Amino acid sequence: MADKIVKVTLRRSVIGEKPKTRATVESLGLRKLHQTKEHVDSPTLRGMLHKVRHLVEVEES
Predict the structure, then answer these.
(1) What mean pLDDT value characterizes the chain?
(2) Residues 17-44: pLDDT tens digits?
(3) Start-to-end Cα distance in the chain
(4) How many C-beta atoms surround the C-beta of residue 23 within 10 A?
(5) pLDDT digit string (tens) for 40-55?
(6) pTM
(7) Residue partners of 29: CB distance under 8 A and separation at least 6
(8) Gyration radius of the chain's alpha carbons
(9) Residue 38: which of 61, 13, 7 has the closest Cα?
């Protein structure tokens, strides 16, 4: 069975966010607005997405 892929897009700026939030966005591989990265779904990834849910858009495939 293939792993689920999740597309994560940065929709809001990290300006004014706390350093831990900025680090989480950067560790997701997102550097510019509207940039999209694909990740394999995992509990660790879900935790990271929960922390930055107000900045990103998640699309499951």
Answers:
(1) 95
(2) 999 999 999 999 999 999 999 999 999 9
(3) 14
(4) 13
(5) 999 999 999 999 999 9
(6) 0.91
(7) 37, 39
(8) 11
(9) 7
What is the b/e burial string over 35-45, where b = at least 16 CB atoms within 10 angstroms of the residue's CB?
A: eeeebeeeeee
Query: Which has the closest alpha carbon to 49: 31, 19, 14, 25?
Result: 25
Burial of 13 (0-12, 13-18, 19+ CB in 10 A): exposed
Q: Rounded to the nearest 10 degrees, what angle do helices 19-27 and 43-51 cross at? A: 140
Q: What type of residue sits at position 53?
A: R
Which fold is adopted by the domain 5-60?
A: Ribosomal Protein L30; Chain: A, (3.30.1390)
Tokens of 41: 């779904």
Whether pLDDT at 11 is above 80: yes
